Structures are given as C-alpha cells and as structure tokens.
Amino acid sequence: MTNFTEPTAGEPARESARxxxxxxxxxxxxxAAAAGPNGREVTKExxxxxxxxxxxxxxxxxxxxxxxxxxxxxxxxxxxxxQGRWVTLAPxxxxxxxxxxxxxxxxxxxxxxxxxxxxxxxxxxLDDFRSNIELKARSADPLFFAVVDNSSGRAVxxxxxxxxxxxxxxxxxxxxxxxxxMQRTAGATEAxxxxxxxxxxxxxxxxxxxxxxNLNAPSKRAAxxxxxxxxxxxxxxxxxxxxxxxxxxxxxxxxxWPARKAAYERWLAPENFDAAGxxxxxxxxxxxxxxx
Length: 292
Known about the structure:
Aminopeptidase, single chain, globular, alpha+beta
C-alpha cells in the first residue's frame, strides 16, 4: 500500500505526495534524457539533482523505523581449522573422516537415532555414506566441518555454517550430526563455542541462528544451553522424509556474544573439571538469561 496524502481542494499536489511508482517512472525518463545521445553513465550528482538525496533516504518521522547500522558485509566462512582443547573442527574430508563417521552413526538403533531429525540417513553401506560425504565436502553452503576428537584423532561428528547471508551479516549453525560418542561431552560444547567465536569475533556477523524440528526436545534444550534465545515456531515449515516439520527458531546476537563468550570460557576452563572430567559448574548456570 502506498502511503501518501491527497491534496485538498485548490491545493497543488506535492511531489512527495505522489505515488512512488509515478515518481520512479518520471525519474527513469529524466535519467534517460540526462544520459544524452551517447548513453553515458549518469553521475550520482546528477541523480541527486533530479531527486534530492534526502528525499530518497528519509522515511516519514511518524512511523517507527529501525536504527541506522553499519551496513558493511560480513566475511564469508572459509575451509579453515579451528583448534580446541577437546576437539578440532576441520573441513570435512571423505578420506579422513567418512569411515569413522559411518561407524559412529550406523549399524544399530542407538547409533542410527542421530538421523531421526536430519534430512538424510541412516545409511546401509559405507560406499553410500562416503558418496554422500563427498557431496557434502564440496558444498560451500552449507559449509561442512568434521568434529575430530583430539584424544583419538577420529571424527565423531560434523556441523555446518549455512544460510550464509554476508550482506545482512546473518548465518546459521545447522546439519549437526553428533555420534553417541560425542553427545553430552565437553567436546560437544567446545565445538559450539569454536563456531560462535569464529562467527562473531573473526567473521563479524550480527546474528547467529539455530533452527530445529519443534519436536526435537534435546536440540531445543541444547540451543538454550548454548546461549541461543527462542524466537518462535514456523508452522508447517518443511516436509522432511515425508513428514511435517514445524521449525523452532533460536538466535544469538553480536551484542549478546561477549557475555555468552565469557560463560563458555569459564565453563571450558580446566579448573572447572575434576580429575575424572566431571564439571564443577554447569554451563546453564553461567549463561546469561535468554532475550525475551
């Protein structure tokens, strides 16, 4: 709907009150005339002279609008290695990671349960699984990282940075596949910390998202534990493996990251664990309250 005011009787119509479509049409004709017979490029100064710069950028003050922000784009993530104390995130590699990941996520009901809420799997053969890993390794978005256990050197899961919107500085963590050997370990928390630190501190994103099937209660609990705030449910958002999926949305913002980073680092510190590897403080007790 166009927002303008009709002139009163006897009052000439103001240019700013004309529908934007008409103003754009007039501007297009004027620009074509300004280009001249040689079709030279019209300068910004000429455009501003035809339609004032302030007129093009200033919204009506009677309507609420968002604050001005620095509109520079974020950096795109690369195929780099992120080193932690318990785990290392490395670009997914079929030769290095496929066999261990297949063994950890296929073969019996317990291991194959990791695929329940994912878009693919489980797999009946290593060959089929490796072919899929080869495709994933070549993907740029989602960008796949293997999670490698530092003590054994074996891949115990993977996760991705996806829906990469560098212009708006928004990015998502997704396609998280943690084998039973990795679930509920310090390495799983560290893998999330390494991603978040990379996203905010090195790449400069404003918004970091987590989405999951609304029926996936463990994923929703994990999102909150890792510092994401629940934002709502997109009903009938997807059809996955022939079934309806309502999607729960969570996000963390750049302004929230410093306090959440401090919570992660305090929890991950060696002194937070006893000789048997048991935590002294829970991450959920250290993490700031989610945004409302």
